[in-house]
Design a protein that fits this description.
single chain; mainly alpha; 434 Repressor (Amino-terminal Domain)
């Protein structure tokens, strides 16, 4: 099962690390507590829209950019979790019924 808070947390952590920034730095520029930001990144807390907007601003990104990255992650996970259809050989009785019709 996909948990949006986990995918969002992973995206926030990746962005922060790609920028070479610390949790403390982003928390400070976002006006979000260090502990809460850490919990967001670990996927243990749900972010309100206001809080998420503040974190995005602290990262120098638009909310839509971050949500787009989350969407890509969710789509990837859904692809891996999708059931795989396997070819099933027709049974002889099905073949006979189909040719009789």
């Amino acid at each position: 099962m996909i948990l949006l808070r986990h995918e969002l947390g992973e995206v926030l952590r990746e962005i922060r690390q790609d920028q070479g920034r610390t949790l403390r730095d982003v928390a400070s520029t976002s006006s979000v507590s260090l502990g809460y930001l850490s919990e967001l990144e670990r996927g243990t807390k749900e972010a309100s829209s206001e809080l998420l907007s503040a974190v995005c601003a602290g990262l120098g990104l638009q909310l839509s950019e971050v949500l787009g990255l989350v969407q890509e992650r969710v789509e990837r996970v859904e692809t891996f979790a999708a059931p795989v259809s396997l070819p099933v050989p027709a049974r002889e009785a099905d073949t006979v019924s189909a040719s009789a019709a």
